[in-house]
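User: Can you predict the 3D structure for this chain?
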Amino acid sequence: MNKKPNKRQIAYEVIRKRIIEGVYVPGQRIIIDQIAKEVGSSHIPVREAIHQLESEELIEYTPNTGAVVKGVNDEIYKESLQVLALLEGYATAISTPYLSTQALETLKDYNQEMKEALSDFDFEKIGALNRTFHFFIYSYCPNQLLIKNIEQLWDRIDAVRKIRSSFTLKRTPKSIEEHDQLISILQDDKNLIKIESLARQHKLNTLQTFIEQQES
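Assistant: Here is the predicted structure, written as structure tokens:
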């Protein structure tokens, strides 16, 4: 027998996708009745989905309002980048032994697409390709809990990335160059300490660019 659709999971995916894509903005209230009607469920699966998103810090409860989309302020954004630098550096390093020649060619293709998107000032595509580039590497990572934590942090700050187009324009050319450097060391060196350091610095460079923009 086929399993019945998991209404909690459906509600979770609907709400999460809208938060990440900016359809639901920080401070916006989540209407449980509305979501329940959309997914064809009672309130219970929706509330369970909201609790899961609350644990991922995408939603918070406020007095007299209920569940609202949680905003990411500048300090949280910077702290998130610092944590990601550590997690992504290690994840990249331990993925390295599993990356095939074909996988490295795929990374080159993604980075070339980023260069083309930059010439078209297509920031939305750049953001999607950047995520694809890094998570393609992580798809080879043997530590799934590590990747889950990275994914949750990316989701948490993705909405911030979407509204900072000037920051994206300043950072992207250098980020693409750093991707080329990373591909080169993944292909030719395979020194895991160097790879971890380079991947960690890649994220810290994003943090530094953000700080410089704040101060300017």
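The domain at 7-69 is CATH 1.10.10.10 (Arc Repressor Mutant, subunit A). The chain has two domains: 7-69, 74-215.
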